[in-house]
Amino acid sequence: MKKYFVIGSPSAKKLAINIAKKLDAKYLKTTLKVFPDGENKLTILGHVNKETIIVVSSTGPPVDSNIIQTLSLIAKSREMSSEVITVIPYMGYAKQDKEFLKGEIVTISVIAKLFKAAGATKLIVVDFHSPDALSFFKLPTKNLSAAPLFAKYFRKYKLQNPIIIAPDTYWKDDAEKFAKYLNTTATALNKQRDRKTGKLLIKSPLPKFSKGRDLILYDDMVSSGGSILEAIKFLGKKNFRKIYVVCTHPVFVRDSEKKIRKAGVTEIIGTNSIEKKFSKVDLTEIICKAIQDWK
After folding, report:
1. Which residue ranges in the chain fall short of pLDDT 50?
2. SS3 content of the chain, % helix, strand, coil (to 5)
């Protein structure tokens, strides 16, 4: 059996420990010091002798600090090993994958170059925002889906003829995949955003559905909650028995949770790609399987 060492950043410590236990790998602790000017200094407590190192880190808020910490861990790990599998369940900047307006920087392409330069040899992500964004990473990658895990989570619920709706057509295929696991139906709303003002507008016709069903709003991530709120407003919260918000990446900045709950949401369910109180679905199993399947 292949031997692994696991190093977790402060942003994904619990997930890293879970992965180490599942793989029967040695977990190397890290310490973090933040200087008065905001600089981060990480220290890895322990040493590796050529074995494969798995770096587990999540680059949620504060995004820039967590990315610097991740790159630092990768670089130090590469000094100790020729193989550094980098697990980034949530990748910041993944939405910046196109030059929508002239002069905009495609920041995820910059991040991808930094990962390669730091020494990452393989990359595992979960529900990455877009194939276009992932294509910038010039190394072997695996993009895992959390849909089966969410379906398993909901099997303990007595859902009433649920309907899965993605707040954006971009996530339609994933919503349909999720619906298939639950043996139900799915659709997506045609959301459009003004690239200059950021204002959201739903231009699709109201989907046909019978009243009194449970609604599951399914998206890859929820940050400010704008898409979710617009979707609930458009669909009409009184048309549903219960409303669930399901997202792989529960970013939730500022007062987004308060606004979403006020809009009539029964429960918010996310994964531990970002460690929040909404992290009710554990990614450990699918990440470990992806690592072990990598010959």
Report:
1. none
2. 35, 30, 40
Q: What does each C-alpha distance from 124 to 103, 230, 283 come to in angstroms?
A: 30, 32, 12
Residue of 76, 122, 191, 196 marked active site: 191
Contacts for 294 with CB less than 8 Å, ≥ 6 apart: 85, 122, 140, 142
H/E stretch holding 44: strand 40-45
d(C-alpha 106, C-alpha 279), whole Å: 29
Active-site residue 138, yes or no? no
Which residues have C-beta within 8 Å of that of residue 75, sequence separation ≥ 6? 118, 119
CA angle (189 as vertex; 187, 190 as ends), nearest 5: 135
Q: Hey, what domains does the chain have and what are their CATH numbers?
A: 4-145+282-293 (3.40.50.2020), 147-272 (3.40.50.2020)
User: Could you tell me the pTM of the whole model?
Assistant: 0.94
Helix, coil or strand: residue 253 = coil
Give CA–CA dist 213/10, Å, rounded: 41
pLDDT of residue 288: 98
pLDDT of residue 43: 96
